[in-house]
Amino acid sequence: MPAKLSKSVWVFVALAGFAMPAAYAETPNEVLSSIQQDAAATPGFQGFSGARGEKFFREKHGNEWSCSSCHTDNPAAQGKHAKTGKAIQALAPAANAERFTNMKKVDKWFKRNCTDVLGRSCTAQEKGDVLTYLLTVKK
Amino acid sequence: MSKYHSTILPMLAAALITTVATIPSAHADDDDDDHYERRSERHSEKYGGENRGKPALPAQTNAKFQQECSACHIAYAPGLLPAESWRKMMAGLDKHFGSDASLDAKDNKEISAYLVKNASNRWGSQTAPLRITETAWFKRKHDAHEIAPGVWKRASVKSPANCAACHPKAERGDFNEHDIEIPR
Fold it and tell me: How far is B37 from B34, CA to CA, in rounded Å?
């Protein structure tokens, strides 16, 4: 009897486990791990730095905009598109649970925004630094 | 004095009647396109053939279009431009008015098909502008006679691309003249 009960509990937990992540494909930490796998392929990779990510986020990189031009200096706050003025929901996962939970969306926006801000793609190091920084931002 | 009155009064009355009589037709020409069409066989030539479609937004919209095209600006209704404009737009998303707005091939294909299918059905000219604000119908309806140039510079308006500043239902493709509220 107890064995049978524990089995059904196990089935329940397994089902719940499958059902819950359906809302979000990935967690921000999984996204970070994925970026880290790419970064680790670069010789001399020594991990990510939130401090470096924050500096990168706020600075301009030769073009008109920085990340913070639209996302503001506080990624936990609502941003505003620098050109159209449209509201942009908070970027930090602590303030917006939807952020960095879908790898396809993450790739899409890094591609677009890195082109706009840097005129090139971001390296895995740069993406990882920025996400590490964003994960340290409190609500 | 009374002689003067007797001449001026009928003139005033005539002027008033003329004004009143002109108002409805001016309205019809301004926005009530259906009304206009009934009187015109060559409605496709209105605005030199650069006329937005009707309806601007189809009853059946596309979820991917709504989601992707409204990330940075309102999802501009497909009927505002001809099919060829949308083809060009979707082929150049990596350089979209100075921004990279690229989509993956699958999403691009789905949204392109939706835009082309529901593009303006009254576009008679061979032109295919990328900016809605550069079309003849837009310019005519928003010329200096209709909108004082200073309005565009207001922070609350920001740019002619910001339809929703004055058209509260722009996102639904509804640009009815009677709903316009120009912000201060």
Answer: 5
List CB contacts (< 8 A) between B156 and chain A: none
ipTM for the predicted complex:
0.82
Q: What is the pTM of this model?
A: 0.80
B116 phi and psi angles, rounded to 5 deg: -65, -40
B3 within domain boundaries:
no
The range of the structural domain enclosing residue B164 comes to 46-179
Say whether A81 and B98 touch across the interface (CB within 8 A).
no
Instruction: Give the number of domains in chain B.
Output: 1
Q: Say if residues A91 and A79 touch (Cβ distance below 8 Å).
A: yes
Residue B147 in any domain: the answer is: yes
Rg over CA atoms, chain A: 18
Q: What whole-number distance in Å separates Cα of residue A59 and Cα of residue A48?
A: 18
CATH number where A100 lies: 1.10.760.10
Residue B129 contacts residue B81 (beta carbons within 8 Å): yes
Q: What is the pLDDT of residue A23?
A: 73
